[in-house]
Every structure is written in C-alpha cells, then in structure tokens.
Design goal:
Layout: E1 2-4, H1 9-19, H2 26-33, E2 38-43, E3 46-53, E4 56-64, H3 73-87, E5 92-98, H4 102-110, E6 114-123, E7 127-135
Parallel strand pairs: 4-5
Antiparallel strand pairs: 1-2, 2-3, 3-4, 5-7, 6-7
Helix pairs in contact: 1-2
The structure holds coenzyme A.
Length: about 140
Amino acid sequence: MKRVGREAAAKLAALHAQCFQRPWTAGEIETMLDHPGAIAFASEDGFVFLRCAADEAEVLTLAVVPGARRRGLGAALIRAACAEAEAVKVRRVFLEVAEHNQAARALYVRLGFAEVGRRTGYYAGDVNAVVMSRDLPL
Ligand SMILES: CC(C)(COP(=O)(O)OP(=O)(O)OC[C@H]1O[C@@H](n2cnc3c(N)ncnc32)[C@H](O)[C@@H]1OP(=O)(O)O)[C@@H](O)C(=O)NCCC(=O)NCCS
C-alpha cells in the first residue's frame, strides 16, 4: 500500500465502483485529491481517502474489493492514513457510516472509533448515518 495522488484517480474510481452502488467518477476523485488536506492510500485491492482541516480529519471513503475482504486491508488502510494525518497535526478523526453497514461499523469499533451522533436520512434512500470518532494516535 502507498500514498497516492491525483494520478491514481482512474484506479481509485475502478476500485470504488466495485464497492459502492453509486460510484464516484475519476474526475470527481481528482477534484477531491486536489484538496490540500487530502490523504489517500491505495493498494491493488482497496483505498482510503481522508480529508484533513486544521486538527480534525474526516474519512471520506474506505473501499476493499469483495475478493480481498477480511484479510486486514481495510484496517491497515485506515491505520496508514491516520498515521499520515497525525504527522500533519490532526488530533481527531470523524466518519459517517450507513446504519446498516455492519462490516464497516465492526471495523471502526475494532479500531477504537465510538459513536458520537446520528444523521437522519443522510444517505440516498433515506438511510441514516452513524457518526463515529476517535482521537489520534490510533
Ligand atoms: C468495510 C470494508 C472496507 C472492510 O474491509 P476489510 O479489508 O474486509 O476489513 P478488515 O479485513 O481490515 O477487517 C478488520 C475487522 O473489521 C471487522 N469486520 C470487517 N468486515 C466484517 C464483516 N463483514 N462482518 C463483521 N465484522 C467485520 C472484523 O472485526 C475484522 O477483523 P477480523 O477479520 O479479524 O474479524 C469492506 O467490507 C468494504 O469495502 N465494504 C464496502 C464499502 C464500505 O462499506 N466501505 C465503508 C464505508 S464507511
């Protein structure tokens, strides 16, 4: 796994499309990666994308292709991105996860994230989001 920038946008879009019903285009990903606080790590089978602002960061997405799940990649991606965020003085990380996404919620709990709120109807289809957070270092 390595840190990637906008040159990886097409690859990240292909990975994203294998993991989400509403895929992001390479162009959208490029724009997101151009943000000065963007941190993305990727391997052949997955990627994570954080956005940092001052001493906080948000996990914008985490994706591991179906054939590579339950081998620790998702957790390793989050750890790598959080370590990089910590190096630029981020002290707290937030994320939103769909209420029914048991896999992701279990992963985040395992990494020490705790629920700090809910957003009603946050996702398409009137799906609620759970807001989770934890302090760094992870
Ligand atoms: C969520 C996701 C990134 C997890 O990636 P992964 O590489 O399989 O996760 P890991 O192997 O690092 O799992 C770490 C721990 O998380 C928990 N976990 C992960 N997937 C789980 C599942 N399907 N059911 C229950 N617990 C799960 C387990 O505690 C696991 O440890 P274990 O395998 O030793 O039991 C992956 O399932 C995915 O891409 N899903 C679709 C996209 C998505 O929902 N992204 C998150 C958006 S917020």
